[in-house]
């Protein structure tokens, strides 16, 4: 990872968003997010903006500054506020061209917002609190999961839900992830189980075929994430660990367990080359792991409360 091309941010319950020099571990900038805790953060594809999801607002901040003073808050003007949710915003993602964002909330809704206009463009109502939403790599579908244990696929062209999956009745699904080529869908739930579906194109629509179930952890999975090279799956959990699974040939065999965090691990982010992983934990810290040897190579200390979300953008643009 070339330092100048890396944007790394963490946030959580202390109402701050911190930017870090990934390789030195130095906090270079801080945003005071005074509204609430920060549940999710996302960096725009062009690295210009950072979106922060709280309760119940979503704020868009300027992520760029050349000034070295980490305490000058005026360097971080709030660009836009997205108002419309009525409870915790639990999911957040940028469209690949950075033109719109999607959000999901405990208020039971998924909303799409145009970056240039803070008005809601789409509004999908679910019958349960939303726990995660991702944008399909084809940019034309969304995949959501919720507290009722349902996974739904939303077709933006048809403006409706086209698939509904319930891997385990009444077990909340916490996180969903999709391979960058759209070939695999993965979900993790509150019982520590991971479910895998293979996508099959049938004419104009996508079919989902269940191919695997893995008992990944013995307690809550807080996040599951497929690596950019699609060869690995990371799962993090209330058991304080992160596990790396091989997704080659849909095997999902355990490759390594990353140990070091002292409390729940809430979020993970892969580097673009899939060689490194950033994690955030209730132990108030984030870590950078070298996946070749399962070692922590950098600690990010400075938050006063749990770090529940991380964002890493190290693709040269």
UniProtKB/TrEMBL annotation:
GO terms for cellular component: cytoplasm; TORC1 complex; TORC2 complex. Keywords: Cytoplasm, Repeat, WD repeat. InterPro entries: MLST8, WD40/YVTN_repeat-like_dom_sf, WD40_PAC1, WD40_repeat_CS, WD40_repeat_dom_sf, WD40_rpt. It is found in: Cytoplasm. It comes from the Eukaryota. WD repeats lie at residues 1-30, 82-123, 130-164, 214-246, 258-299. Pfam families: WD40. One of its GO terms (biological process) is regulation of cellular component size. Belongs to the WD repeat LST8 family. This is Protein LST8 homolog. It comes from Chytriomyces confervae. The lineage of its organism: Eukaryota, Fungi, Fungi incertae sedis, Chytridiomycota, Chytridiomycota incertae sedis.
């Amino acid at each position: 990872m070339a330092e100048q091309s890396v944007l790394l941010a963490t946030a959580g319950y202390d109402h701050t968003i911190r930017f870090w020099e990934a390789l030195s571990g130095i906090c270079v900038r801080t945003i005071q997010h005074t509204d609430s805790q920060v549940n999710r953060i996302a960096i725009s594809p062009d690295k210009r903006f950072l979106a922060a999801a709280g309760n119940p607002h979503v704020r868009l901040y300027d992520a760029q500054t050349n000034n070295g003073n980490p305490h000058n808050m005026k360097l971080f003007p709030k660009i836009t506020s997205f108002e419309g949710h009525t409870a915790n915003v639990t999911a957040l993602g940028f469209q690949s061209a950075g033109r719109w964002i999607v959000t999901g909330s405990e208020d039971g809704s998924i909303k799409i917002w145009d970056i240039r206009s803070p008005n809601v463009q789409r509004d999908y109502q679910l019958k349960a609190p939303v726990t995660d939403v991702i944008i399909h790599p084809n940019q034309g579908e969304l995949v959501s999961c919720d507290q009722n244990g349902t996974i739904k696929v939303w077709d933006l062209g048809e403006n409706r839900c086209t698939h509904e999956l319930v891997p385990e009745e009444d077990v909340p699904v916490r996180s969903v992830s999709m391979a960058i080529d759209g070939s695999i869908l993965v979900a993790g739930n509150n019982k520590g189980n991971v479910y895998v579906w293979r996508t099959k194109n049938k004419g104009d629509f996508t079919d989902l075929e269940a191919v695997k179930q893995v008992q990944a952890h013995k307690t809550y999975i807080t996040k599951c994430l497929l690596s950019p090279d699609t060869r690995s799956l990371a799962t993090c959990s209330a058991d304080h660990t992160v596990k790396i699974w091989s997704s080659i040939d849909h095997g999902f065999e355990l490759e390594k367990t990353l140990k070091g965090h002292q409390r729940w691990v809430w979020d993970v982010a892969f580097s673009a080359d899939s060689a490194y992983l950033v994690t955030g934990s209730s132990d108030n810290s984030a870590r950078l792991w070298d996946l070749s040897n399962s070692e922590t190579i950098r600690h990010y200390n400075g938050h006063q409360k749990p770090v529940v979300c991380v964002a890493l953008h190290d693709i040269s643009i």
